[in-house]
Amino acid sequence: MITCVVEYVIDARKIDAFERFASRWMELVERHGGTHHGYFLPAEGASDKALALFSFSSLAAYEEYRTHFGTDPDFVDADRIRDESGCVLRYERTFMRPLLPGGSR
Questions:
Q1: How many domains does the chain have?
Q2: pLDDT tens, N- to C-terminus, the chain (105 residues)
Q3: CATH code: domain of residue 52
Q4: What is the CB-side half-sphere exposure of residue 72 using CA atoms within 13 A?
């Protein structure tokens, strides 16, 4: 299993648009074979930080999901929310492997 951790710097004034963007991506990850663990939005502290975590069974499965970027109309529509609203200022992806309770991976 591989987990993608996406760290966002967002425009806190556009949190509603970010939530619409996030909701669409949760649906798309699930529809294309991944497990979305949710978006984590500002509550206290920095108001411009958000995180997303989602997993695929392997890096190859993630790469298959990525083939839809820029071509699948649902993926394009989800990105349009981000691009037109300006809710995301910057983001960075990191891939991690989970160590779960009981030593399971």
A1: 1
A2: 999 999 999 999 999 999 999 999 999 999 999 999 999 999 887 799 999 999 999 999 999 999 999 899 999 999 999 999 999 999 999 999 988 788 755
A3: 3.30.70.100
A4: 15
